[in-house]
Design a protein that fits this description.
There is one protein chain. The protein is α+β, with helices and mostly antiparallel strands and about 350 residues long. The protein has helices at about 10-20, 35-45, 65-75, 80-95, 100-110, 210-245, 260-285, 290-315, 325-340, 345-350, and strands at about 115-120, 125-130, 135-145, 150-160, 165-170, 175-180, 190-200, 205, 250, 255. Strands 1, 2, 3, 4, 5, 6, 7 and 8 form an eight-stranded mixed sheet that branches. A two-stranded antiparallel ribbon has the order 9-10.
Amino acid sequence: MPFQATPMFPGDLYDTTLRVAATAPVVETFESQQPSETWNQFLALGWQGVLVSEEHGGAGYPLADMAAVAEAAGRHALAAPLVARCAVLPALLSGFAAQPAVAELLSQMVAGEASVCPALDAAAALRCSFRGDEPVLTGTVRGADLTEPASHLVFLARTAEGEDLLLLAARDALPGLASTWLGIDARQTADLEIEGVRLPAGAVLARGERARAAAARALDVGALMSCAQVVGAMGAMIEQTIEYLNTRQQFGVALATFQALRHRTVDMYVAYENVRGMVRQRVLAQGDDGAREIALVKLYLSVTARQAAEACIQLHGGIGMSRELPAARLAMHALSCSLQWGDRFAQLDRLVSTDLH
């Protein structure tokens, strides 16, 4: 019996992203100095401005519209940094829009003239001292998604006194060795080793609790949008698995006639409907202080995504191990998204934190 996944938030944003993602080539190369044609299309469409307020030239749409973009991209295992640049960044910088440099950067993002990469993994890996009012950085900027070139980076650092800082700098202002890793879904992540880099005083956006709160909120948005990507990938995996079982024959009959395989597929479907409902409900409740609920959703989905990915590969048999198979790429994409913006262990740490009670 055929199955067609229903989008959580259907509409023009979903349909347009789906068309662009469907034609995107599968690229597995390291950091390029030029944006891909697919990324150029997203910049031209103004996807970086979906969540940016109208005051700065953006659309000012709710989080549900960005979830539609993320889900559509997930259906084709698109490795473009849509969540990082189009969801996490607006959530991170919206609280600092009163600063002229941030306001100008937001306008440039909306116009597609700038693309800002958030790197919020570990403040302790980057030490900051001051010469007058100017920060001097030594250490590592970890977890920068450079699948597409970035004009700026926003990242955390820590002073010798233990104060956390949120900083904004142009990519060219951070010279040093970049160690880049290619993920299983062709996502490119880099750690930037810098030594004694001096930035202007205006690079410091926030300090202390304000910096931590802004980063935490942005990470929540990233976790929720990565869940939307997984929902898209799971829906497409189930569609392709059912089509394969209905088409492939063994012992003269379709694989879909074997009860054990049908039960395994139903398990995938039930898990999909569960996570789809949970993510949709959490997205629609964006106005609530739902850090704990987001952590619970991400924790559940991280486990479910791995189970669904394994089932998809196994139900496809030997061909399921081939990277050329779309279902296999979807499985790897779901696994990768489940690790982004806090894996299940990070979510467990958050849930036992007193900050979420």
